[in-house]
Write a structure and sequence with these properties.
The chain has 286 residues and is an alpha/beta fold. It has helices at 9-21, 37-49, 67-72, 77-87, 97-100, 119-122, 126-141, 153-165, 195-200, 202-216, 221-234, and strands spanning 5-6, 26-31, 52-57, 91-93, 145-149, 171-175, 239-247, 261-269, 272-280. The structure holds pantoate.
Length: 286
């Protein structure tokens, strides 16, 4: 059975108000739809932390810095609603553009520091768009807990910073990356890969895991990164935007892995931008 859908903030708040009266903890899972097992794992995780779970579906134009990318973003609301019903979500909030950004909308939320570099360097304005819409979704629903995927690792860091800086009374939980059999991180963008692209795509995560293991074993970070970039290009990727070792919390560059370093990559294949990241720690690879 499909999950029930509301399209206005008023309806969303009315439903959440009923749950609050019943004493329920509320969880939120923001998405842009085209749901795959990665998203569904976030819903399952939210269900372990809350009594009622709202999923949001809004393809947020403010976070796309390229009109073609926005137009090509996959949309499958009916199918998404079916999947959410099956996994036990309680409500789908799928507002239209006018509900989220009515005439005269003029506010931008901008998080400095963690939003700079990595994806922020290649997608100007992207994290302002994310921070703005996530702020709205959190204020519209006022959940106890909100779950975001670790695949968008920099996004998760931006949201954690935002919530801390603005004293928002919500716990942010990161859900682990879900991978396909060959290791490719699940993403709605994978749907846009050609057959050849799908065959080559798992080489990205393979290269990333291999690099993380070598760095954790003490190899020189710069040489591992240079070799790994070359391997990714040799696998058929047309560009590696970045491959960097960063502190897992602050996202500051690190020259050597500490307890919580993360290796992050963005690369283009088949005209599709793929991102991925893995933890780097001597313990994990021991
Ligand atoms: O990760 C996403 O799908 C989006 O960036 C989010 C968090 C739903 C905001 O539009």
């Amino acid at each position: 059975m499909s999950v029930s859908i509301v399209r206005t903030v008023a309806e969303l708040r009315a439903r959440i108000e009923q749950w609050r009266h019943a004493g329920y903890r509320v969880g939120l899972v923001p998405t842009m739809g085209a749901l795959h097992d990665g998203h569904l794992s976030l819903v399952r995780l939210a269900k372990t932390r809350a009594d009622r779970v709202v999923v949001t579906l809004f393809v947020n134009p403010k976070q796309f810095n390229n009109a073609d990318d926005l137009a090509a973003y996959p949309r499958s609301e009916a199918e998404d609603a079916g999947k959410l019903g099956a996994v036990g979500a309680d409500l789908l909030f799928a507002p239209g553009l006018d509900e989220m950004y009515p005439q005269g909308f003029s506010t931008t939320v901008s998080v400095a520091g963690v939003s700079e570099g990595l994806c922020g360097a290649f997608r100007p304005g992207h994290f302002d768009g994310v921070a703005t819409v996530v702020t709205k979704l959190l204020l519209q629903s006022q959940p106890d807990v909100a779950v975001f995927g670790e695949k968008d690792f920099q996004q998760l860091a931006v949201i954690r910073r935002l919530v801390a800086d603005l004293n928002m009374p919500v716990t942010i939980v990161g859900g682990p990356i879900v991978r396909e059999d060959g290791g490719l991180a699940m993403s709605s963008r994978n749907l846009r890969l050609t057959r050849g692209g799908r065959a080559a795509a798992p080489r990205l995560s393979a290269a990333l895991f291999d690099a993380a293991k070598r760095i954790a074993a003490g190899e020189d970070v710069d040489s591992v990164i240079a070799q790994t970039k070359a391997d990714i290009l040799a696998a058929g990727f047309t560009e590696v935007e970045y491959l960097e070792l960063r502190d897992a919390e602050t996202l500051a560059p690190v020259a050597k892995p500490g307890q919580a370093a993360r290796l992050l990559v963005a690369a283009w294949l088949d005209g599709v931008r793929l991102i991925d990241n893995v933890p780097v720690s001597a313990q994990i690879y021991a």
